[in-house]
Design brief:
three-stranded antiparallel sheet, mainly beta
């Protein structure tokens, strides 16, 4: 039996589909006229997901898995575009740029790089990337396969993860991934 793992919803912030949920973690109770009030106080959030299983590149299948970035091990940004594609899936932007220094907020927590729709706040410290693409993915075509089920490339299954509100008002995953 797998041990239970307790993780704050903030750990999922890198996933764009979960980012909206993160904004509600630890939020104050609903205020009059607050359209998000019902979401801030509910006991659980259920995140539906599609999990795709790919065969590693070393076995002759998907080129993006088992791939080593040309600029080395590290954290990469700007692989996905800032907007979704026409079919509401992440769109390809680049093969990724390795983070040289992290973007951090006034509490010294990692944050995403500033974007046209997410400005810097007082106390934020700008990070930087190396100027050369890291080739963390092979191409736009292979990146698109991550978000589409394609015979001979991957298989899909549907699942969900339940986040439960704790006493501090933070939504957490409390279970196992198996």
């Amino acid at each position: 039996m797998q041990p239970k793992t307790r993780r704050s919803v903030r750990a999922f912030a890198a996933c764009s589909s979960v980012t909206a949920v993160c904004a509600f973690a630890g939020a104050a109770p609903a205020r009059p006229g607050d359209v998000y009030g019902p979401y801030r106080t509910r006991g659980q959030i259920i995140l539906p997901a599609t999990v795709r299983d790919f065969t590693p590149a070393r076995q002759g299948w998907h080129a993006d898995f088992g791939k080593f970035a040309t600029t080395g091990v590290g954290r990469y940004v700007h692989v996905a575009a800032d907007i979704l594609s026409s079919d509401n899936t992440p769109a390809f932007n680049s093969t990724g740029f390795k983070v040289r220094t992290s973007w951090i907020d006034s509490g010294l927590r990692n944050i995403i790089p500033t974007r046209s729709y997410v400005g810097a706040h007082t106390g934020d410290i700008a990070g930087a990337t190396y100027p050369v693409s890291g080739n963390t993915v092979t191409s736009a075509a292979t990146f698109d396969q991550w978000f589409r089920t394609l015979a001979g490339v991957n298989s899909a299954t549907s699942t969900s993860t339940v986040l439960t509100r704790d006493a501090a008002g933070t939504y957490v995953f409390d279970g196992t991934f198996d």
